[in-house]
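User: I'm preparing a small set of examples for a lab meeting where we compare how different chains pack in three dimensions. I only have the primary sequence for this one, and I'd like the structure in token form so I can line it up with the others. Please keep the answer compact; I'll paste it straight into my notes.
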Amino acid sequence: MKLHKLLVALVMFGFSLQSPKSIAWEQITCLNNTKKHWNIKEYKPVFDPNSIPINSEQYNGVFEAIRRMNLNPSSFRYTFGGLDNADGVGLSNHESEIWFTDLRIAFPDDGFAIAAVERSDSEISPTCTATESDIRINTKYRLSRAPVGTNKIQYNLLAKTELFEYGGSNENLTSTVMHEMGHSAGLEHEGDEMNLMGGDNLIVVNGSAIRPYIGEDSAGGLLAIYGASATPNEDLSVSHWWRDAQKADGGGSFYSVHHRTKIFDAPSGGAELPKECPYSKPDANGPPISACPEPVYKVNKGQTVYLELTYENAGTTTPLMATVNYYLSLDSYIDLAAANILLKTSSLSFKRDNDPSTFRTALVIPNTAAVISGWRYWLGCIVDPLDVIAEKFEGNNATYVEIKIN
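Assistant: Understood. Below is the structure token output for the 406-residue chain.
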């Protein structure tokens, strides 16, 4: 198990998020030990109009995956190729396509447990060069967790309670397709970091909305393989998830396993604070969370607590200085509302080294009449709260951990 990274150096008046590692992402290797790549630096799939009707939830979810993957800072682009023509979709037909299908037909032994799969002609290329990549999304993704017999793919981005990490049963379509689009570009599964190519959705949640994102590790991989875009993007993020372990994917590589960040009683070591009710992330085939879909920590007024979160730089500039604000909020949507109590402002240096930084920040719970014992609040974080840094996607800049005042 990888230890959390800590703040290791002061930079100017802030901190530097440093890492001893330089590379974590993996590139797909072909049988002759060459690496998967595209010479044209573009993945341009068409959608199957029968299984992905225009303007349907499926269409919007897959199209959103293209949009979010294009926020990466590399020169590799994802382009919507339109709807497939009358010749139909299929493998090895010299056209990149995305469609929904029953994967139990292709994978009779475990097709029910596969959300989606990517296949490319790079596998038969002597130079591992891709010219076609097909993504098939399972219409029969039937994990055994309740409700039994239903598809466990969620199409929308608005309801976190549908995700199995937040009390539901499903995995998000957009994040799932983004993972497969990572394979299309040449990225292999990765188990050493919290990342898009791991075994769990890579999302930021603020309030009730789900915000899939490419993340530092995969963005770094695309930059290394294809070089920077002529108009590169910046992208900072903060999440209440971290990479806690890894598991084998059955093909010789590994998935990362993501768990919720915690609140502690010390800057390092120490103990996790007690929770209002038991919480543990569900197993993929286990029952959905019922009583405690998210951790709620018990704290005292006037107490110093140590909030653990994960910070990433998926842009081009490294390091990139940014202001980070921490709040005591009345709800789980962390913003600049006047009712939120500002607890701390820090200046952090985000270094993109393909290794997301998970560390703790000391915060003091206000001991005032405005903070009411017995109430639930949210310790929230906003990266670049005044939008000083030009980012094309601001939706992954804030998150929270819930608390209850004793």
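A couple of notes for your slides: Confidence is low (pLDDT under 50) at residues 1-22. The chain is about 10% helix and 30% strand.

User: Perfect, thanks.
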